[in-house]
Write a structure and sequence with these properties.
Elements (H helix, E strand, L loop, with lengths): L34 H21 L6 H10 L8 E6 L2 E6 L2 E7 L6 H18 L1 H5 L2 H13 L7 E3 L1 H12 L1 E3 L2 E6 L2 E7 L4 H5 L6 E5 L2 E2 L5 H8 L6 E8 L4 E8 L1 E3 L4 E6 L2 E6 L6 H14 L7 E5 L8 H9 L6 E7 L6 E4 L11 E5 L6 H11 L4 E4 L7 E7 L5 E10 L15 E2 L7 H10 L1 H11 L7 H8 L11 H11 L1 H18 L2
Parallel strand pairs: 14-15, 15-18, 18-19, 19-22
Antiparallel strand pairs: 1-2, 2-3, 4-21, 5-12, 6-7, 7-8, 8-9, 8-10, 10-11, 13-14, 16-17, 16-21, 20-21
Length: 522
């Protein structure tokens, strides 16, 4: 049975005495601890350390992350140091030994959470900087330290940031506007259709001067956002200045549940383009609704679909699966593989192709990541879309969110993404059939160059599709065949529309994709 060492109190600084009958160093008990403060800290750290050790994609011990977390206190006071010294953890302040604590077993999560909490409280006694830091600063320092050696996508968010993250994913109580602050004026830049602000009569270009009688002059964006948002079914009163004449208007608006828009539609010459800016809980539903309306528009029939994923950083995994499923009728979409049993999934298509077989183009760039890459890879592998642009970001890992007792959260990497053809997205990304890196002037030349070298392209795709995770040098070498860039010009849209408008070109590009995916399918 594992025994958790309970730390006892001592009122003075501790010196290690390495004498006992059996040769084991004697460790005096630590200084007195404020139990209420310590218990609160230990509860949060226990939840965080436990979540990380249980769910991280690689094996990690409570000891490893706890010691790194304690060392994270140095970000608040560089004089503080942590040393593992045999069976003890030594806290130092400059050249002075402050206190030593006995070390729990490597996998004793609760023991290490208590030890870290004791170190925090002891450090507060000798460090003015730590005494001035609020609890959020302490948690941020410890968790940033604990996660620092894992990967760049595992991170901690304090309570306020975590609430913003949840609002992006799940929505919030609001009125349905976007605004910008410029020259101390809060100007409405977008009004969501059918949202409370639109129904009340708020217009794009209106300047908001007061919320509930409080002037917005000089307030930061976050402070303004907090005033506009609130519980659903509550009222907020806005004072508006409208037009060049500065006409003053007042509105009383009832907040409702708002999910940020992530799908914007545009149509040019019968081609429907859907710009996806992210993947939140409403993305698939919104795209499905727009696809159905477009297909039902007999007066302006749609002849092709473009999914513009440039700059899309990703979002909810299941939403990306649903988006891909909107354009597929069968087949594999993506697999996730991690250490935790709940991270193992195979997602299959079972939709009804809302585009009804129309040509589909997907545009990606160097900032298309994660969920955006799932959609691009699935539609390309399933021979449903032609992908153009530049190599995508290559974020092929999935993060889970661990909510903590302080209302903060840890975003933790817990699985890898595997495409239908078997390759790992991480560090590699998606390779377009038509590469637009190193922009040239003639659209026809870009397309002809990509499609005329079919043997080279198939060889490159076959190398790209090597199953599993390839070595970093090899991934970098492959990515150089179509350098990853951030694209915001009209070039890619013009290329996409040209390909859709020429059926022979579309079929040739699609066949080039099919050539290698068929070779990889079981």
């Amino acid at each position: 049975m594992k025994t958790t060492i309970r730390l006892r109190v001592l009122s003075s600084l501790v010196l290690l005495v390495a004498l006992s009958a059996c040769g084991t160093p004697y460790v005096p008990p630590p200084p007195a601890i404020d139990a209420s403060n310590k218990n609160e800290i230990a509860e949060v750290l226990n939840a965080g350390f436990g979540g990380v050790t249980e769910k991280y994609i690689e094996v990690v011990t409570a000891e490893t992350i706890a010691i790194e977390g304690m060392r994270g206190l140095g970000s608040l006071d560089p004089n503080l140091g942590i040393t593992r010294n045999g069976p003890t953890i030594q806290l130092t302040n400059g050249d002075t030994d402050v206190v030593a604590f006995p070390t729990p077993d490597a996998d004793d999560i609760e023991g290490w959470a208590n030890a870290a909490a004791d170190v925090v409280v002891a450090a507060q006694r000798v460090s003015p900087d730590l005494r001035k830091a609020d609890s959020e600063k302490i948690y941020e320092a410890v968790f940033d330290g604990a996660l620092s050696n894992l990967d760049v996508f595992s991170r901690y968010a304090g309570a306020e940031e975590a609430r913003r993250n949840r609002a992006k994913r799940d929505g919030f109580g609001g009125i349905g506007i976007r605004f910008r602050v410029q020259n101390r004026a809060v100007t409405v830049t977008r009004v969501m259709a059918d949202a409370p602000a639109a129904e009340a009569g708020i217009l794009k270009g209106d300047a908001i001067t007061h919320v509930d009688g409080v002037s917005l002059s000089g307030l930061a964006v976050n402070a303004i956002t907090n005033k506009l948002r609130g519980p659903t079914h509550t009222d907020v009163n806005l004072t508006i200045r409208r037009g060049k004449e500065g006409r003053k208007l007042t509105f009383s608006i009832t907040r409702t549940h708002i999910v940020p828009e992530t799908v914007v539609e545009a149509r040019v010459n019968g081609i429907a383009t859907y710009k996806l800016t992210g993947f939140n809980q409403d993305t698939a539903r919104s795209l499905a609704e727009k696809l159905k309306k477009a297909k039902a528009d007999t007066e302006n029939p749609v002849k092709g679909i473009v999914l513009d994923l440039r700059g899309n950083p990703g979002g909810l995994l299941k939403q990306s699966v649903k988006v891909a499923d909107l354009l597929l009728t069968q087949g594999h979409i993506v697999s996730t593989k991690g250490r935790h049993p709940d991270s193992l999934h195979d997602y299959e298509a079972g939709g009804s192709d809302l585009a009804h077989g129309l040509p589909v183009l997907v545009i990606i760039d160097g900032k298309s990541a994660s969920a955006a890459e799932i959609v691009a890879a699935a539609l390309q592998d399933r021979e449903r879309a032609v992908v153009i642009g530049t190599s995508s970001y290559g974020k092929g890992t999935v993060q889970t969110v661990i909510r903590l007792p302080n209302d903060g959260e840890i975003t933790l990497t817990w699985s890898r993404l595997m495409t239908p053809s078997g390759y790992a997205l991480h560090g590699l990304g998606v390779l377009p059939v038509v590469c637009t890196s190193n922009e040239r002037d003639e659209i026809g030349d870009i397309i002809d160059d990509a499609l005329s070298r079919s043997l080279q392209a198939r060889s490159r795709f076959q190398s790209w599709r090597t199953p599993g995770v390839q070595a970093r040098d090899r991934r970098n070498e492959l990515r150089r065949s179509c350098p990853s860039q951030r694209r915001s010009t009209d070039l890619e849209l013009k290329v996409a529309r040209h390909i859709i408008g020429t059926s022979a070109t579309y079929e040739k590009a699609l066949a080039l994709s099919a050539a290698y995916s068929e070779a990889r399918q079981p």
